[in-house]
């Protein structure tokens, strides 16, 4: 893919950028440039370009606004102490976007082109990748996304599609230290069913979780837990994170995929925990096993994982008629978290080959 670059005539000045990077938050500030490439059946992918970050123009009849044909990814770039910039498993994000493309009837952007788009944009906006000075967790969040941009009111796959990448500096997910999140078990709403879009990273899955998240917030909880749609008894995932359960014999269980998103952090933890000597099993996980396991002490830790939070311990689980207290420990959770973060930021050897150097 040949990429043209037009640099911004008014990039963010150094003083303002320093102010942003000192306290970047999450998803509120955006770098100076963006990547765009378009697709039609006749031309394939064409006009790949990096341009100044700016609003985009969509026709009111753009298919994405009416039929939600869109997908996205989330990943990060990290500045190591020597000033080099690295991405964490971008090939896995590219492969997952291919799977999402198939599910949403969108054209496939091949892995090398996905990587080129991400890497060239990060190189152009390299000064937006924060420093960490040894032990911080600031990074550059990267958001690739694809949507149906054809102007057409008809229910069929769009014949004009746009793929874009934008980036945003991100601070540590946890302000004031890592604290266990309190979870609400929704017994009314489900996230996805058999044959649905649960395994695709598409906005509709997140939109459908918002009312359940409101329910969680109204009940004093941080996140919502979804059960399967068929039986209403098997744990699937949170609104935006995957779950893990640690047992008193050191074994670990995570809910099997199929109707849940195959998280990149999730798969990384399976490998990492295995190398640390823990047996990790992917299987159906009954909500009663959670309740009874924590109460009896059989389950010693519960944690969640995702790109933004990396790994976070889980505290109590609440529902309309009851509550399970927080598990007894967070020891393994925090050791797994530290091991993963140390690889991402170059503070530990990458024995898995996960990191890809950008500059």
Automatic annotation (TrEMBL):
SUPFAM superfamilies: D-aminoacid aminotransferase-like PLP-dependent enzymes. GO terms for molecular function: branched-chain-amino-acid transaminase activity. Its cofactor is pyridoxal 5'-phosphate. It catalyses: L-leucine + 2-oxoglutarate = 4-methyl-2-oxopentanoate + L-glutamate; L-isoleucine + 2-oxoglutarate = (S)-3-methyl-2-oxopentanoate + L-glutamate; L-valine + 2-oxoglutarate = 3-methyl-2-oxobutanoate + L-glutamate. NCBIfam families: ilvE_II, PRK13357.1. It comes from Nocardioides vastitatis. It comes from the Bacteria. Its EC number is 2.6.1.42. It is an enzyme of class 2 (transferase). This is Branched-chain-amino-acid aminotransferase. Belongs to the class-IV pyridoxal-phosphate-dependent aminotransferase family. Pfam families: Aminotran_4.
């Amino acid at each position: 893919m040949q990429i043209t670059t037009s640099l911004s005539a008014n990039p963010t000045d150094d003083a303002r950028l320093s102010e942003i990077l000192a306290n970047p938050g999450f998803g509120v500030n955006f770098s100076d440039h963006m990547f765009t490439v378009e697709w039609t059946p006749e031309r394939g992918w064409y006009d790949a370009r990096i341009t100044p970050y700016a609003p985009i123009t969509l026709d009111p009849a753009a298919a994405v606004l009416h039929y939600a044909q869109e997908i996205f990814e989330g990943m990060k770039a990290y500045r190591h102490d020597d000033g080099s910039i690295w991405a964490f498993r971008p090939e896995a994000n590219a492969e997952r976007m291919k799977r999402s493309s198939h599910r949403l009837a969108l054209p496939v952007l091949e892995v090398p082109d996905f990587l080129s788009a991400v890497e060239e944009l990060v190189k152009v906006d390299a000064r937006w990748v924060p420093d960490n000075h040894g032990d911080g967790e600031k990074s550059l969040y990267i958001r690739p996304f694809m949507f149906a941009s054809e102007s057409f009111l008809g229910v069929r796959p769009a014949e004009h599609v746009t793929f874009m990448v934008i980036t945003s500096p991100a601070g540590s997910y946890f302000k004031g230290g890592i604290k266990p999140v309190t979870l609400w078990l929704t017994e009314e709403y489900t996230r996805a069913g058999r044959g649905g879009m649960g395994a695709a990273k598409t906005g509709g899955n997140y939109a459908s979780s918002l009312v359940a998240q409101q329910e969680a917030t109204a009940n004093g909880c941080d996140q919502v837990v979804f059960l399967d749609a068929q039986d209403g008894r098997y744990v699937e995932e949170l609104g935006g994170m995957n779950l893990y359960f640690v047992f008193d014999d050191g074994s670990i269980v995570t809910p099997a995929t199929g109707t849940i998103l195959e998280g990149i952090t999730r798969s990384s933890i399976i490998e990492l925990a295995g190398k640390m000597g823990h047996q990790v099993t992917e299987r159906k996980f009954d909500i009663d096993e959670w309740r009874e396991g924590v109460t009896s002490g059989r389950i010693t830790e519960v944690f969640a994982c995702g790109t933004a939070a990396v790994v976070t311990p889980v505290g109590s689980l609440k529902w309309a008629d009851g509550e399970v207290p927080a598990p007894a420990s967070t020891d393994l959770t925090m050791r797994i978290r530290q091991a993963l973060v140390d690889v991402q930021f170059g503070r530990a050897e990458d024995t898995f080959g996960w990191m890809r150097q950008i500059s």
